[in-house]
């Protein structure tokens, strides 16, 4: 079967739904963004999550987290309809089509203006362009912002061609090509579009729009920006993973959408508190820059050929490294502009997505010690240096200090990749990434002619390696374990061969992969672990780990099994090809914040590994059927 054309790559597979009678699920949303902020738009025409003007600003629309208090921006036909969503090919511009009786149709294009020229700070906006086809369509519009995570109702005032919604510390402007009126805390309007007629409506942060250009003009420039940025199928990773181009390209666009145009940093996800289990308390704020996740993003950008994105991120992150030990170690996470005050708090007044409480903003993991982040950072720097050494050389003095931090601290217990909320422990994966940090730092030192640094680091690297092979491996279970001195298994140990610590054919690697598949696997899905972690309630399977398993199997001698798992995992994505962090394989339900950079990185790496398969067979995307 031939690969689907990228133009068809994001067609909804569930076009028979009518206007909603209940709460939308996560897979009923698409995401748009302008490299400063992002918004989630439901397939029913409602903007139900938007934080302006930055990714981690307090929400303006948050019906995603509270159906009554959150606020939203609704636009849809007033009569019953069926709908589907797709992305305009090779862009993050979202198209929702509403199908009505008598062969009539309403097309709604949602976007946040983006361009290679930086948008003025604090001027994010959401543009919506609609067009009727086949006959007249009556449309209803409602703009109901609720500032500060639903705490404040807007006070509207209307001027000439512009309406302003004010809160105590927030102002939102709104403009439209049709008349509307103020109804309490809402701005409402109704119009009947003739066939072929268009209308425009936009909202944005601040007192006035950033420019007076028609939305259609901004839409054209936004389409040109995204289509000019995304790489064509001829670039290296696309050639390797060409059979799965629709998923590769969508993941590429997701990672770019989650980056900051101002700083070059990558956030983990655009949402907060989407639960890891319905009704459970594992609800976290992911609108920040995790060193780990962002370094993975930079590595993926390098594989995709977007070297400038990786360079900007590395430059930004290196500036966070203290110039001397007095400044302390690199932090686990930052705001997209380098913010370090990320205190976690709960918003008890919000009911939460799927009634999952508490809703949290901020993240307590910012105060943890996680040893593995140094390995991810230095691995990204090494990968970039292999292609553009001149861009990394100026950063070497601070990167060398990172390696020295690892030498001093690698024996300490930490909170690990999974950010456990209990006491620090000697996690084997953390030691693995300490080894990676030292190994990559030695390579950089050798590349830059710093033999003194390389000589200091080599004994520490060998000490860490010896610890992993003795303390991290359990002969009784014939596997590398989660924590030294225990026997429980952890999916993070799939990374042992992926980072080059041991070859895939090593018997200890093979038996570890087999045990993870046996004890943590459910079909193609993989749980992170199955031990108490200090938190109440269950969680779903972890999709990045499922893609790690695909990569491990593809790079060993089990490529047929890898491809079979890959096929099933791709069918678990949203109708738009977007993936969350976790998945419930029994209820077939996406879980966790959405879309998740970590998962899309795992997908890209797995696609690359599968590109080496000798006789792959193409799976047509579910979202083109």
Task: Describe the protein's architecture and organization.
- The chain is built from 16 helices and 28 strands.
- The chain has 625 residues and is of the alpha+beta class.
- The strands form seven sheets. Strands 1, 2, 3, 4, 5, 10, 15 and 16 form an eight-stranded antiparallel β-sheet that branches. Strands 6-7-8-9-17-14-13-12 form an eight-stranded antiparallel β-sheet, with helices on one face. It has a three-stranded antiparallel β-sheet with strand order 26-27-28.
- Strand 12 and strand 13 form a beta hairpin.
Features:
8-stranded antiparallel beta sheet, alpha+beta, single chain, disordered C terminus, 16 helices, 31% helix, 625 residues, 28 strands
Number of beta strands: 28
Percent of residues in helical segments? 25-40%
- Write down the overall mean pLDDT: 92
**CATH architecture verdict of the domain at 6-228:** Distorted Sandwich
β-strand amount: 15-25%
CATH class of the domain at 6-228 equals Mainly Beta
Task: Describe the global form.
Answer: globular
Q: Name the structural class.
A: alpha+beta
User: Nearest-angstrom radius of gyration?
Assistant: 24 Å
Instruction: List the total number of helices.
Output: 16
Please mark out the parts with pLDDT under 50 across 5 or more consecutive residues, or reply none: 1-21, 614-625
Largest sheet: 8 strands, antiparallel
